[in-house]
Amino acid sequence: MAEMRDGLIHASDRGDFEEVWITLSEPLPALLEQIEPVLSL
Q1: Which residue range(s) make up the domain with 33?
Q2: Residue-wise pLDDT tens for the chain (41 aa)?
């Protein structure tokens, strides 16, 4: 993910934003499930 960020920062005119969206949106529900208990403290 860090490499993708670096690529987008330094070459944003050539970024594959569909791939970025897929990379972020697929694991997001699992991440939210993990952090919700922490946020409700």
Answers
A1: 2-39
A2: 567 677 666 666 666 778 778 877 888 888 889 999 998 87
Q: What total number of domains does the chain contain? A: 1
Whole-Å CA distances, 37 to 25, 29, 31, 41 = 20, 14, 11, 7
Secondary structure E strands in 1-41: none
Contact assessment for residue 8 and residue 15, using Cβ atoms and an 8 Å cutoff: yes
Give me 6's structure tokens: 């670096």
Tell me how far apart the alpha carbons of residues 34 and 30 are, in angstroms, rounded to a whole number: 6
